[in-house]
Design goal:
25% of the residues lie in helices and 20% in strands. The chain has 197 residues and is α+β, with helices and mostly antiparallel strands.
Length: 197
């Protein structure tokens, strides 16, 4: 990205599957592709710089022809319970509403140290695919019901320099069972997030 024009690089080529050469990719990204290949899950990939703005995210959404979900890493006040919430990108996160549904008070964003410890991901790269690194099931997955209505699902491969598009059914029926994670369905109010309008 340059300071002069606030531009950012997006390779507008839609690739099927993993990079042909992964020598310059992080191990956690390669592990993500290994999992998807092992499960024979088809996906498309778009490579880009870390996306600095909502507008940049919208361009990726348009190129992939999906609405990439928000992936929020949360915890309770005591930092003893951890959650990964998936909700549509245009939905606003309402803490009180979610807390009531899952019976966990005073939810907040979890510290990056826990993100790294449990999911092997860093801020800006939060992804449901990071649950493959949560072998002790420290993180409970929460999925907003509207996510399940989308035919396709978008997320990062544990790093925010690529975005993936795959079938939502493959996430629910194949990936989550393979990584030994279940989910709790939540129903958050359908109020658009002003930041995405």
């Amino acid at each position: 990205m340059t300071d002069e024009d606030n531009s950012f690089y997006i390779d507008k080529t839609l690739y099927n599957g993993r990079p042909a050469n992964s020598s310059d990719r992080l191990e956690k990204e390669s592990r993500t592709y290994d999992l998807l290949d092992q499960l024979e899950i088809p996906y498309q990939r778009l490579d880009h710089e870390p996306l600095p703005t909502i507008d940049a995210c919208r361009e990726v959404d348009t190129l992939l022809n999906i609405d990439i979900c928000k992936n929020l890493f949360l915890c309770n006040a005591k930092k003893t319970e951890f959650y990964l919430l998936l909700l549509p990108g245009k939905k606003k996160f309402r803490t009180a509403c979610l807390s009531k549904q899952i019976g966990s008070s005073r939810l907040s964003f979890a510290d990056p140290e826990f993100m790294i410890q449990f999911l092997d991901i860093t801020p800006g790269s939060v992804s449901v695919l990071g649950l493959m690194n949560d072998r002790d099931n420290k993180v409970q997955l929460l999925i907003d019901k509207d996510v399940l209505s989308f035919e396709f699902f978008g997320c990062h491969p544990c790093i925010n320099t690529s975005s993936l598009k795959m079938k939502t059914a493959d996430l629910i029926d194949r990936i989550l069972p393979a990584i030994n994670h279940n989910y709790i369905l939540v129903d958050l109010p359908d109020e658009p997030d002003p930041a995405t309008n």
